[in-house]
Amino acid sequence: EECILAGAAVGGKLRRRKYLVGDWEHTPSGCFLQFNDKAIHFGTNPNSRNNGYFLPVCKPGPIEATLLPGGHGVKCAEDHDFSKEECVTAGKIVGGTLRDGKFMVGEWSNAPYGCFIDPSDNAIHYGREMDGINIGAFQPVCKTAAHEAALLPAQPGNACEQGRDFTQEDCIVAATSVGGRLRRGKYLLGDWSHTPHGCFIEAKDKAIHYSSNADGHNMGFYQPVCMY
Questions:
Q1: Which of 116, 124, 215, 217 lies deepest, with the highest CB count within 10 Å?
Q2: What sign does the dihedral 100-102-105-111 (CA atoms) show?
Q3: What order of strands is seen across the sheet that includes strand 30-34?
Q4: Closest C-alpha to 126, from 114, 118, 139
C-alpha cells in the first residue's frame, strides 16, 4: 500500500503493527496520520470531513525550478526560495550535480541565500546566510514563477496589458525564461521615458531591464516581458 510507505516517510507508524482502514465520517478521505500518536490510517469515505485531529498525507506536486544567470546581487525573488531539503532535487533539475558526492551547505557572505549552483563545476550549494550577497559567481536556483512569461515583439508603443506586468522582483526569472540575460552581470533598473514600463528585454542583446516609469513609451527597440 502506498499509504503505509508515504505515512512512514513523514513520521507515521503502525499502531500495534496494524494499518488502520475505515469508512469514518470525521477524518479526511485517503491517507492520514492521527495527530496524537502518528498512527497511519486510510479513510475510504469520499464525503468525510476532517474534525481537526488528523494530518492528511498527500502526494507532493512536481518541482519546477529556474536557474538565474550569475550576476552581482542576483538572488531569488521573495517566496521563490527552495528549502534546504528541496535544494538537491531542484538543483539537479537545472543541471546541478553534487561535488564529490557532497551537498555543499554553509554560511557564505559572498553567495546568495538559499539554493544555488557554482557554474565552475555545477556543484549544488545551499547558503544559510540570510544577508549573503552574490558576488556574481553563483547562479541562484529559484521556484518558477506562478505565471508563465510571454515575450512581445519590439514595436513602437508595445507594452504589457494592464495587470500583466511582472514585478521588479520576478522580472529576472520571467525574462530568463524567454531568453533574456544580464548585461555584464547587471540587472538594469531605471525610470526611462523611451522604454515600456515594467519588465522588458532590449532586442539587440537580450539584456534584462525593469523600468519604474508608468508613463514610459516603447520606442520600438524593446520587447516587453508579460504574464499570460
A1: 116
A2: positive
A3: 20-22, 40-43, 30-34, 54-56
A4: 114
Task: Name the amino acid, one letter, at 127.
Answer: G
b/e for 203-213, b at 16 or more Cβ within 10 A?
A: eeebbbbbbee
C-beta neighbour count of 157 within 10 angstroms: 9
Helix (H, G, I), strand (E, B) or coil at 3: helix
Q: H or E segment at 5? A: helix 2-9
Mean pLDDT rounded to a whole number for the chain: 91
Pairing mode, if any, of strands 198-202 and 222-227? Answer: antiparallel
pLDDT tens string 109-121: 999 999 999 999 9
Tens of pLDDT, residue by residue over 59-102, are 766 677 888 888 888 888 777 899 998 899 899 988 999 999 89
- Do 177 and 194 form a contact (C-beta atoms < 8 A)? no
- Rounded to a whole number of angstroms, the CA Rg of the chain reads 23
